[in-house]
Structures are given as structure tokens and as C-alpha cells.
Amino acid sequence: MPASIFVQISDFTSCFFLGFVVGVVFDSFFFKRILKRRTKELLFFSSSILSTAVLIAGLMFINFYTLKWYTFLAIASGIYVYENTISPLYKGFLKKVNKVLSFNKR
């Protein structure tokens, strides 16, 4: 028996916010611009692992790993909406935090 439309809408909404969280994870790891190449590679690797863990845990709690076409659509649209709305504000906030932290080190 196919899932109810309300269950599908709930799964879509949850996966949309899961995509939002993945965007926050990537931005959180890349807020420092002056890094050595190896440090950037290490941050990329660790953020990829963390975002994958978030996706796996989220999919387990949302719909028990049932992957449907709207799951991918929801995650991709969540990342897209985050990158085009909240991301510039969040990156600005992280840059200000970085300036305060680097000011205290000197």
C-alpha cells in the first residue's frame, strides 16, 4: 500500500531541513580563508565525513533509509535554498567571529 501523502510531505520537509543542515556543516568548516593547503584538505575531508554522517543519521530517523526520488530532490533543494538565502549571512557572522578570535591571539 503506498504511503499517505502526509507521510510523503513530512519526509520531504524533513529531508529539506536535512539539506539545510548539510549546508551549515560545509560553511562551518570553511569560514577561515587563510589556511595552508593541507589544512584546507583536512577540513574538507572532515566536513565531508561529518555531512555524510549527518545524512545517514537523518535518513535513518526520517524514513528508515527508504530512498525515493523526492528524498534526493528535498536534500538538494534544501542545500540550494540555504546557499542562496542564509549562507551569506552565516558566512558574514563567521568572518566576524574569526576577526574577534584572531584579534585576541595577537
TrEMBL record:
InterPro entries: YabQ. Keywords: Membrane, Transmembrane, Transmembrane helix. The chain crosses the membrane at residues 6-30, 42-63, 69-90. This is Spore cortex biosynthesis protein, YabQ-like protein. It comes from Caldicellulosiruptor obsidiansis (strain ATCC BAA-2073 / JCM 16842 / OB47).
